[in-house]
Design goal:
single chain, alpha+beta
């Protein structure tokens, strides 16, 4: 009986610790956003994210862009996201390979955390969080002309109220008039 109880306790503790390693908090000046990452599905993208967290250099980390239905008049494919940087430009690591949603099986749903990019192979430290489902950001979607979509790697599990608060900020076109500081990003222990 003691062996079974010990095994059960060990299994529970192992399970709890493995879950917590995959949960992170983005601490902002307007509240916290908690999300989980999927290292087994998007190892390159999550590995890149963890490098930035481990670097712990958040000077210049902000949410600075808000894309809403009302502020993208010339784009026929509308999306809703908030976009930021993990760190300031002086602390960027080299760009990473693009992991498409076709490869990972992840999709851009309400609360999905994904990497920003211009062309394939330009992903570094810019990321965004989806507001509502955004299938046009997936592989084969029409938001980016190359059809490669964006690299989803996480999902908000708490703090969508903060995401929506940031989304509601005053903008000049798509740029927030007052950037929202990211004070730090850390793993939940």
């Amino acid at each position: 009986m003691r062996t079974i109880l010990s095994f059960f306790l060990l299994a529970v503790l192992t399970s709890c610790s493995s879950v917590s390693k995959n949960h992170y908090v983005i601490e902002t000046e307007v509240g916290d956003i908690t999300f989980e990452v999927y290292q087994d599905k998007a190892p390159i993208t999550v590995g890149n994210f963890i490098k930035y967290v481990d670097q712990a250099e958040f000077d210049g980390a902000y949410f600075y862009r808000v894309v809403r239905l009302d502020n993208q008049p010339i784009n026929p494919v509308k999306i809703e996201v908030i976009q930021g940087d993990f760190t300031g430009k002086d602390h960027y690591f080299p760009v990473i390979a693009h992991e498409t949603t076709l490869e990972t099986g992840l999709t851009h749903k309400n609360g999905t955390v994904s990497m920003g990019r211009l062309d394939v192979g330009t992903t570094a430290a810019e990321f965004f969080i989806c507001i509502n489902d955004q299938p046009e950001l997936n592989y084969g979607g029409k938001r980016n002309p190359d059809g490669q979509g964006f690299a989803a790697f996480g999902q908000v599990i708490d703090g969508m109220d903060v995401v929506r608060k940031i989304q509601g900020g005053e903008t000049d076109r798509q740029m927030l008039k007052k950037k929202i500081e990211i004070k730090r990003i850390y793993a939940i222990k």
